Amino acid sequence: MGRVLSILAIGMGGYYLFQKRFRVINAVLGNSMMRRFFVRSLMNIPAIRNRMMGSVFSQGPKPI
To answer: How much of the chain is helix, strand and coil, in % rounded to 5?
Structure first.
């Protein structure tokens, strides 16, 4: 019974976060430390890094 309640609580929490996802993202990225961590994490992914660097230096995005 406890496991069912846990799954139900996780599902309801996920639904609530999905409904408020933009507020959650703004709250998380509003913190400078979290924003730096998020950007560093994204820049460690080669496909995203190449695409962003291509757009910054006007070479256009490279096809994947």
So the answer is: 80, 0, 20
Residue 62, Ramachandran bin (φ over 0: left; ψ between -120 and 50: alpha; else beta) = beta
Q: Are 38 and 48 in contact (CB under 8 A)?
A: no
Close Cβ partners of 52 (under 8 Å, ≥ 6 residues apart): 43
Positions of the chain with pLDDT under 70: 58-64
Residue type, 29: L
Quick one: residue 31, left, alpha or beta (phi over 0 = left, psi -120 to 50 = alpha)? beta
For the chain, domain boundaries: 1-57
pTM, whole model, 2 decimals?
Answer: 0.52
